[in-house]
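Person: Show me a sequence?

Helper:
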Amino acid sequence: MADVCRAGDGAGQATVPARVWVERLQLTDFRNYAQLTLTVGPSPVVLAGANGSGKTNLLEALSLLSPGRGLRGTHYTELARIGTSRWAVAARLNVPSGPIEVGTGVASERDGGGPHGRRVRLNGENGTAAAALAAVGDVLWLTPTMDGLFGGPASDRRRFLDRLVASFDPQYRAQLARFGRAMQHRNRLLFEEVREVARFEGLEQLMAETGVAIAASRCSAVAELTAAITLRRDAAADAAFPWAALRLAGTLEDALARRAAIDVEDGYLAGLARGRERDRAAGRTLEGPHRSDLLIGHGPKGLPAGSCSTGEQKALLTGLVLAHADLVARRGRAAPILLLDEVTAHLDAARRAGLFAELLALGSQAWMSGSDPEAFSAIAGRAQMLRVEGGRIAAAG
């Protein structure tokens, strides 16, 4: 039998800017949810419950209303409830143009589904995942696994950066995919000891074109985000969260700061040709946007983020995600849906209150999870409080 829960909207909700929000969420055989129908209002949603009860699973389902593999990055076939081979997430969303119905999932091979991808339906029409979901609106998230962003490998920060850029540039994910496929084919030729120049030229031309486009999109997005951070910093000297200093580090990004894009493209193309034997010895392509990094600093302290305390890093990351959400809204798009998993961990009472105030001012439907309901007491009267127990959800009493 389906678990059905309706949560009343939070009291005292002020007039807010245009936003995207989930009105109804339905899960079928997703993680620890056999069947769930959840109806909520546009105000923030708090999911409280013990570890392992299904809070993060529900946020993961919401994250699949955007392109990509969701907030855990899990392969689609691993999302099905134990003992099943398919799963489905469906939602009724409200966007500035009106309500829309979105469905996504993986069907069993017996039902005509494949093992590698997922299906997406928008208002009853089939579509490709990236194109259909990109049209829905922005879904941003902050999870405990991101707490190690500043001290972890550059690949973690690139993934964070790429999600940020993709929310501004609808062609960005396609450029990443085209670059990745071309580089993979080039690496295979190197591994197979192929030396015919003609077999490399087309791949390297594509890598140069898409690689510089990726770097240019990153530069533009980081510049916009830096400007938004500056506006936020100047508007609130006593803000609850420190401002982040951002800098891109990469061969192509550095070159774009000094030369025209066409010249950078020509230079990268020539560098790929010169570097074939070096890359062959290394077993991979050593230059390109797949090697870039996003360097993040604690602005008020003038320190690298990795040198800060755990609490400072959490506050810095939270502020960065809020700045991203603010920029999305400032660019004329609807305020995004925010998924904040265990967001109150490492935040003191003052910062928790500051977070809730920013979310209400932004107007986003923020879904927040935590094991301690008391951590959300400052927003209890203005949020929808839900209790999660063993894959079932009820209004908090």
